[in-house]
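Our example copied in:
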Amino acid sequence: MGLPMMRRSIAFARSFAGYAGLRAATAFAFVLAGAALEGIGILLLIPVLDLVIGQPAPSESGLLQRAATWLGLEQKTDQLVVALAGFLLLLALRGWMIWARDIRLMQLSLGFVDHWRTRLFRALTEAPWATSAKLARAHRACDPR
């Protein structure tokens, strides 16, 4: 990537940051939260699958085992029901977070395009058309074709 491309990329980033402001930070927070919930959901699959398969975990002092003891859940079926309910709650929260993230990103991208479209039309309406028309006529008069 050459220097002109880098300058254009920096100019684009500055323009977007100038338009988005704090909305970009909010969208970025939603992106991070969605990624974190995705990772936590994948990590929670391990203890849930451990309960489904029924094999004892290598360390019975794991977080899930401590939570089950704290909640007074002695039977594996009770533990499985609570673990699945928590997992489903996490999936619902993750789904909402990703939906909110997509809405924010769509609003930012469409708003940015509309912002530049408005600037373009404003520049066109404020252009000195009389001068442009004279230049165009002069160009046609000098054109040998």
Q: What stands out?
A: Helices lie at 3-20, 22-53, 63-71, 76-125, 129-142. The chain has one domain: 3-142. The chain has five helices and no strands. The chain has a mean pLDDT of 84.
